[in-house]
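Newbie here. three chains, one complex. Structure please?
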Amino acid sequence: MNPSLKLGLVLIISFELAFMQSVIANLIVAGLGLIYLILKRVSPKKILWMLVVSIIPVFGTWFSFYTHGAGDAMHSAWLLSTRIYAYIFLGGILSYTGTVDELLGSLEQNCHLPSKFVYGTLGAFNFAPRVVLTVKQMKTAAMMRGEALHVWSPEIFFKSILISLRWSDNLSQAMVSHGFNETTTRTHYDTFAIPWWNWPVAGICLVGLQFLAFSGLF
Amino acid sequence: MNRQTTSNKTSALSYSLRDVAFIALTGVFCGAIFFGTSLSYNFLAAGLAAIGLGPFANDVLLGLWMIAGPLAAMLTQKIGASTIGELLGSFVEMILGGQWGAATLISGLVQGVGNGLGFAMTGYKRFDKLGLLLSTITGTLITFGWSMINEGYGKYNLGFLLLLLLVRFISIGFFAGVLVYWINKLVEKSGILNRD
Amino acid sequence: MDKLVINDLTFRYKNSGPDIIQNLDFTLQPGTFNVLYGPSGCGKSTLMKIIAGLYPEFSGHVTSGKMYIDSEDVDNWSTQDFSKHVAFLFQNPNDQFSMTTVKREFIFTLENLGMPVEEIEATIDRSLKRVGILGFKDRQLDTLSGGELQKVSLAITLAMDSDLIMLDEPFACIDIKSRKQLLELLKDLQENDHKTILVTDHDLMGYQEIVDALYHFNKGQVRPVLDPEKVFATYQKENRQLLFEKPGNGVESIIDLHELNLQNGTKSLINSASVDVFKGKMILLTGENGTGKSTLFSALTRLHNYHGSIKYLKKDILKYNQRKYARYVGLIFQDSQMQYLKLTVEDEIKLSLKHTNYPDFWTDETIEDYLKQLNLDQLKDHVVYQLSGGQKKKLQIFEMLILGDPVLLMDEPLAGLDLHSTKTVMKLIKEVASEQELTVLMISHQLGGLQDFFDYHLQLKDQCLTYTEVLNYESIS
């Protein structure tokens, strides 16, 4: 499915899910999400990981509504803990069945997102491995001077800003020297069309969602 | 030779390629800094869950996820920077494998709009203590409103609900308010943003 | 028709700052090979960025002057017009790319220029083939060496069809073999594809046979050199030697490497190295660019994965508490700013004094005395981020020496220092090291004046680490 359309669909479903009051609807959405992931041959390891990391928050949510919930506490407990699974599998669809390049490329072509946003973001993403390494270096460098940097230390953010400034400057100069200009028309080597069948599929998903939302299931 | 220098003089509305890359990179950095925190989140959550206080893990750390937005606003002083910063930040989290998937993106949008509202109330003129204070207040209220719907906070009893609200305000007030203020002070004093 | 004409150009970074370029005139003939030389940091890069149209777009102000490229006034050119005429290769080849693979970078570039999609594939292949690196097409950029990245950059300039190719200190990050290949390739492009080449360098080795014109950059101005032979003659290399002892039997070791294997991506850097680092000694670590010296330092400070074992005082370094270990083996990073935590020079020094292992040694007088020697004594209230490159480096070295960690790794601490500062810094390191019995392991490309400072010499060559007694190097006479 076209990446932009997929993003839009997942966002609409996630948003509407927040207002829905049905445990079964949550389970159906989570189940369909899981099936989609399996059909797209996402590795079982990743799927397992999604199940495992969610155990604590799911249990935490359930137990907290069980103890502090008002009204039908049992229903709230089940409703909100199953909702987490629905979110996680919907999120997995975005994270694991497409790349950032594809998503941003599609947003550029199908949604006409200005190219500076597309390539500014893409360039920053391509720095992600270097960013992770640099954060490690910053922490080590501070320890070598006898200080520890924590998530609440302004210094670690300040240094990140310092480096972001330098890198964003380099990055934009690199892009401009390779011909990037936000006002000129670019061609597209990879084209992202929206195939005709995408629309009925999206339509069915949305109609199905409304059925779930208003059917009054438990 | 007086060529137009578009990126040197930008208005509060227009973003240059460099601005976008800068905001996105700070977002990636913020993500990488509290990536280690994702682990501590699970520990904290596990501990709190055992005593029926699971949601507190969420509220105690929520401010952490909301640093990127006000930081972008304070540094670039641009309209909408807060929302864009937060949105890019959550996009990064989603792609780098944050555990909340698509919900992250929606929360990011809610958080960004929440924070940005505070700055908007000053007419995008006060990128200082007042702007930050308002931003933490609107940030807390808007995200809490979303949690009432999305995470079912509306279904808690009132005492528990008020406690959650207080914890959230303290978290956002510290991380997205006080800490951002400190960081901005450092940036100002260091003079690294003076492009002149 | 001239390729490039600059008349009366004046440029400054800050409105209130000094002119970096002052009433400069400069002309380039089409199809020629030109070298612009001058000391590092004199403004050569700035000039190139102006010619490439990056400045004043990204930084600074042009206060006077006219520029013509192919006889066209560039006043109304967009950055894209510049990129179609002028190719610019950054000093650090890693800064050139914004995508992840060679092919993606090509596609990004050609899309920017609006090339019809059906021509893109063939253009990529043709350009890569011309440079002889067709096999790199699907490679990840971060697996390529500095020299390989330069070749990819050149191939991209061919695809962009820019006639003027500028390279800013292109050999700073690459080994001698790649340097030779790259020079041959540039000459080939000049002669057979009629490109105009402009290279800046502070070192003129290997240029004599290939240049058409030599220019000197000095005090913000460029002057053609009328008698290049004379200049080349003064840049002739002289073979020199540094002599060291070989570690004897009675010396105690502080760090032991055992069957150490280091890799960078898929490239093997160090293969099964077993050597000791000796306690209280000053050791010079040399090896060609890209052999893995910095990566070795990263491994020693637990910032890079490795196979085999590294022991500090006979205990595996991974078994130490991270915070404690960071105070046993310190690293002077290449980027000085990585080391700073405070804003002013004074606060930086105070922080080091707070954690020093030798509080009795570092009295106020001693500190003051060394600050004077380093010419930092008048800068105490200055913001560290506003210091010059050399001042930053000196402060960084000083504050790490104050800490007095048992082992101090130094990654190119002399880069960017002038001769006088180099001597002061080396004297400081030697004094403090012997006073506090520090073990120093230093990477340095700059070798002049280092005789008598080091006990041993450790060489990284052919993926092996060995102590050697003789270090041969070339130096400008």
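Moderator note: Residues 141 and 147 of chain A are 9 Å apart (CA to CA). Chain A has two domains: 3-103+191-214, 115-177. Thread marked as resolved.
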